[in-house]
Each structure stands twice: as C-alpha cells, then as structure tokens.
Amino acid sequence: IAIPNLLRARLNANESAAIGAMQTLSTAAQSYRSANPAYPAGLAALSNASPPYIDSVLAGGGKSGYSFALSGSTNTFTATAGPQTPGTSGSRYFFVDESGVIRAATAAATAGSTPIE
C-alpha cells in the first residue's frame, strides 16, 4: 500500500518542481527581453548571460525528472517541459509563452492546453 503512495508523491513533487521551473523560465525570459532587443533564443542564452538568469542545471535541459526547452525570437518565446519518463517522473506536460500563463496537458503541451490555476 505504501509503495504506490510513495511513487505518486514523487510524481507530484516532480510536477510541482516543473511548474516552478516554468515560472522561473517565464520570469527569466521576460527579464532577458527587458535588457535585450529580443527574447532568448534558447536556455543557453539565459545561463550564459552575466549575471545568469537561470542556474546551470535548468540550462542543461533537465531537472527533477523533467526535460525543458525554450525558443524565442524578437516578440515571442515558448518554453516546454515534459517528463523524462512519462508516467514515472511525471504525467503532465507544461507550456508557457510570453503571456506568462503556464498550461498543462496529458500529451505534449501546446498553447491550447489548460491553464494551471
């Protein structure tokens, strides 16, 4: 009885950490844009800035059982997060763009996914 509860608790903790990381990425991208003429092109642009906007672990693309990606241009950016092992490290996918609204889905997250409340 305890093992499934422990695994579910770990999955929930990974998803909560992914949501926090998405908030960090959104804030970092907005801060980067306020100091530069465009949004960051990728995670490396956020970690290579001086001072860095994100830590090297998140910049590596993986943290707490989730993989992260970011792409940006002059007026827009998108960041996504997906479980490294779906069903084990997480069951939801996350998406955020310049609106700052983090969205979740049970399949690869997109702009049309359900906002997290």
Furnish the topology, listing elements before pairings.
Elements: H1 2-35, H2 43-48, H3 56-59, E1 62-63, E2 66-72, E3 77-83, E4 93-97, E5 103-105, E6 114-115
Antiparallel strand pairs: 1-2, 2-3, 3-4, 4-5, 5-6
Folded structure, characterized:
- It is a single chain.
- With 117 residues, this protein is of the alpha+beta class.
- It has three helices and six strands, in the order H-H-H-E-E-E-E-E-E.
- A six-stranded antiparallel sheet has the order 1-2-3-4-5-6.
- A hairpin with an 8-residue loop joins strand 5 and strand 6 (114-115).
- The longest helix is centred in the first third of the chain and has 34 residues, at 2-35.
- 34% of the residues are buried.
- The mean pLDDT is 91.
Count of helical regions: 3
Strand order of the largest sheet: 1-2-3-4-5-6
**Percent of residues in β-strands:** 15-25%
Q: What's the number of extended β-strand segments?
A: 6
Average pLDDT level: 91
The main β sheet shows up as: 6 strands, antiparallel
Distance between termini? 30 Å
Oligomer: single chain
Structural class by SSE content: alpha+beta
Rg, Cα atoms, Å? 15 Å
One letter per element, helices H and strands E, the order comes to HHHEEEEEE
Globally, the shape reads elongated
Question: What is the compact description of this entry?
Answer:
The protein has 117 residues and is α+β, with helices and mostly antiparallel strands. It contains three helices and six strands.
